Amino acid sequence: MAQSLAPECTSLKLKYDACFNSWFEGYLEPAVAVPSTDRAAYARAKAEEYDRKCGAVWGSYRACVEKAMEEKGLSELVVRAREASTSG
């Protein structure tokens, strides 16, 4: 797995990657077996599971990366890129 934008965020990234990969594998395997009439409920339940299992570590990792981007002067570039992608 790749390093984070900032070295101080890499341990959080690795924790998040492991959590997400574990959750996503559990999401995909049974998803194909769920009848189409039950998929919305299944997706909601899996979203709640993600929040419980991975939400906190995602929030910590995101905050670390946002702080690093601000310190490196990249935040404004990201804002402009997002604006350009939605105005296209």
Written description of the protein model:
This protein is mainly alpha-helical. It has one domain. The chain is built from 3 helices and no strands. It is extended, with a radius of gyration of 17 Å. The two termini are about 30 Å apart. The model has no long low-confidence stretch (mean pLDDT about 90). It comes from Vararia minispora EC-137. This is Mitochondrial distribution/morphology family 35/apoptosis.
Which percent range fits the helix content?
over 70%
| Uncertain runs | none
The quaternary state of the protein chains shown equals single chain
Say how many strands there are.
Answer: 0
Mean pLDDT across the residues is 89
**Pattern of helices and strands:** HHH
Q: In percent terms, what proportion of residues is strand?
A: under 5%
Q: How many H/I helices? A: 3
Give the termini separation. 32 Å
The SS-based structural class is: mainly alpha
Major β-sheet profile: none
Envelope shape? extended
| Radius of gyration over all CA atoms, rounded | 17 Å
The tally of domains stands at: 1
List the helices and strands and how they pair.
Layout: H1 10-31, H2 39-71, H3 75-87
Concise account of the structure shown:
This is Mitochondrial distribution/morphology family 35/apoptosis. With 88 residues, the chain is mainly α.
Keyword list:
88 residues, mainly alpha, 3 helices, extended
